[in-house]
Write a structure and sequence with these properties.
By secondary structure, the chain is mainly beta. It has 3 helices and 14 strands. It folds into 2 domains: 1-48, no CATH class; 50-324, no CATH class. The strands form 4 sheets. The protein has a 5-stranded antiparallel sheet with strand order 1-4-7-8-9, with no helix packed on it. The radius of gyration is 24 Å and the shape is elongated.
Length: 324
């Protein structure tokens, strides 16, 4: 933080601000770009650190916070310890999408949230930030599985950080319909309905996707994993599980959730699985025949997973803060 603008300044204060091991005032003065004769008063108000960049910059609670909702660069001068939150793009919920606009109940799992990384690093060079996009919704074929996965959010340059993209939700699997297992990712996608049961996708930086159990079609699909809580499991009556909750931060002055999982879809008479707090999309209730009802998409810049069926994943986000 900047040195005081009046009063006594110690050599140790100057050394800390410069990140220097030297006790020589001449050496410290030269490192700060000061002239001669050397004087302690040269360091009144001095700060060796500056940073710019991001879609918004906020001062809160003694910190400055740079928020990146789109890709960009944090340009820095000097050396500083900074804390970073990075969330990857959320996974989408697959949709069966029968021809002619009608859709029998599929029982697809919710999309998993993007991965959550919260770490502190010391940087002295620029950070190059790429915000991960959410997986695409309304994808119907197993060959499109990769498109439903969320994309990673990455930081390179002065630090190397990756928040993985969320896993896609699983698709219904019977003896006659091509199924698709849930995707692994930052948070795992929910398991689809079907006669085989099974677990949800695995989360590498958050919760696993919800599962469905038993050799019966009566159990609903799982919800997508959130960054703090795994996805909810499907239950009897073809009811989809809810998406897992995301992590919270209060860096901008109020509590904010990020990285909620998407809800699984349910059959008529049952509510769709709720989206997890932190941008998770809600799942829908499907009639045995009729309208093409798309699940809710994950929230933009939350990394939320898409709701079944067919909800797209939400884009990721990066926040960087340091003491003023």
């Amino acid at each position: 933080m900047p040195l005081q603008s009046s009063g006594a300044i110690t050599i140790n204060q100057i050394r800390t601000e410069l990140g220097s091991a030297s006790y020589s005032l001449r050496t410290l003065s030269a490192a700060a770009g000061k002239g001669t004769p050397d004087s302690m008063s040269e360091f009144y108000g001095y700060s060796s650190w500056s940073a710019s960049g991001g879609n918004s910059t906020t001062n809160s609670g003694g910190y400055r916070v740079h928020t990146f909702t789109s890709s960009g660069t944090l340009s820095v001068s000097g050396t500083k310890s900074v804390e970073i939150i990075a969330v990857g793009g959320g996974g989408a919920a697959i949709y069966r999408g029968e021809a002619g606009g009608g859709a029998s109940y599929d029982g697809c799992g919710g999309g998993g949230a993007g991965g959550w990384v919260n770490t502190t690093v010391t940087i002295s060079s620029n950070l190059n930030i790429t915000i991960g996009g959410g997986g695409g919704g309304i994808l119907t074929q197993p060959s499109q599985a990769a498109e439903a996965q969320g994309s990673p959010t990455t930081i390179t340059g002065g630090a190397s950080i990756t928040a993985n993209g969320g896993g896609r939700g699983g698709r219904f699997n019977t003896y006659s319909v091509n199924g698709l297992g849930p995707g692994n990712g930052g948070c795992g996608g929910g398991r689809g309905r079907g006669p085989y049961g099974g677990v949800g996708g695995a989360g590498s930086q958050g919760g696993n996707g919800g599962w469905r159990s038993g050799f019966t079609l009566g159990n609903g699909p799982g919800g997508g994993g959130g960054t703090a809580v795994p996805g909810g499991n499907g239950s009897g009556g073809n009811r989809g599980g809810g998406g897992g909750y995301g992590n919270t931060h209060s860096w901008l002055g109020s509590t904010t959730y990020l990285g909620g999982g998407g809800g699984g879809s349910s059959y008529i008479g049952q509510p769709g699985g709720a989206g997890g707090a932190g941008g998770g999309g809600a799942g829908k209730t499907y009639p045995p025949q009729g309208a093409n009802l798309q699940g809710d998409s994950g929230g933009a810049n939350t990394g939320g997973g898409g709701g079944a069926e067919g909800g797209a994943g939400g884009s990721g986000i990066v926040l960087i803060r340091y003491t003023l």
